TrEMBL record:
Annotated function: Catalyzes the condensation of pantoate with beta-alanine in an ATP-dependent reaction via a pantoyl-adenylate intermediate.
Ranges for domain Cytidylate kinase: 6-222
Membership in a protein family: Belongs to the pantothenate synthetase family.
High-level lineage: Bacteria, Bacillati, Cyanobacteriota, Cyanophyceae, Gloeobacterales
Protein's UniProt name: Bifunctional pantoate ligase/cytidylate kinase
Span list, region Cytidylate kinase: 1-226
Shown residues within the full chain: 286 to 511 of 515
Domain of life where this protein originates: Bacteria
Subcellular location: Cytoplasm
Length: 226
């Protein structure tokens, strides 16, 4: 008998990692930030100057790198990340990585390797995974599936807050909106395991709610379902 699995999917900047991390703390579950894994591969690929369209080299790279994750420090860095022993917690959140990660993640060979790792870590249950394809593809039998959304406006504003908290320059809101839209489009339109709401996922919109409100809502959904 395995313990429950919670899948949280949704577009960029909807608050998945903040909520998944806090929900995991409350339930004593392991949190697996799958976006951090795709970011880690992207960071390494950029270092090696691999073309983001070169699926073959990217797949070989994904099989070769060793990615380690550990709980992070705050919402801005929800997960600590190491690639082949080097800590890249901050680097994987850089804009340069964010701009390329969807292209790198579109390759089936990259995804199948990371999905295999995610299944290995998660199969015993007692885990929360967040990402784009958890409920549809990685763990389609997850006990609780959440599809977390927020308007593009709200997500851009939160992104600006994040940058401010990190002491980084804040681009125009219109630029942030465009970046969010573009990443969503790429993640939703790829051929293999695109972002979409699983039929049995519960959609939770976070637009007008605080993190605490949404956390309470997710805890209630968990208690109802499991
Ligand atoms: O969640 P985060 O924004 O860090 O994810 C970064 C990117 O990694 C996503 O935009 C997507 O391209 C990719 N990703 C994915 N499948 C997942 C998690 C992330 O394709 N399960």
């Amino acid at each position: 008998e395995r313990r429950p699995i919670i899948a949280i999917d949704g577009p960029a900047g909807a608050g998945k990692s903040t909520l998944a991390r806090r929900l995991a703390q409350r339930l004593g579950f392991l949190y697996i930030d799958t976006g951090a894994m795709y970011r880690a591969v992207t960071w390494r690929a950029m270092q090696e100057r691999i073309d983001p369209l070169d699926g073959e080299r990217l797949s070989a790279l994904t099989r070769a790198v060793r990615i380690r994750l550990a709980p992070g420090y705050q919402s801005a860095f929800p997960t600590r990340v190491w690639v082949d022993g080097e800590e890249v917690t901050r680097a994987v959140r850089d804009e340069a990585v964010s701009l390329q990660v969807s292209a790198v993640s579109s390759h089936p060979g990259v995804r199948s390797e990371l999905v295999a790792q995610q299944r290995r870590i998660g199969e015993a249950g007692g885990v929360i995974l967040d990402g784009r394809d958890i409920g549809t593809h990685v763990f389609p039998r997850a006990e609780l599936k959440i599809y977390l959304t927020a308007s593009v406006e709200e997500r851009a504003l939160r992104r600006a807050e994040d940058l401010k908290a990190k002491g980084l320059p804040i681009p125009d809101i219109a630029v942030l909106k465009e970046q969010i839209r573009s990443r969503d489009n790429q993640d939703m339109s790829r051929a293999y395991a695109p972002l979409r709401k699983a039929d049995d996922a519960i959609e939770v919109n976070t637009d007008t709610f605080t993190v605490q409100d949404t956390l309470d809502r997710l805890l209630a959904l968990y208690r109802d379902k499991v």
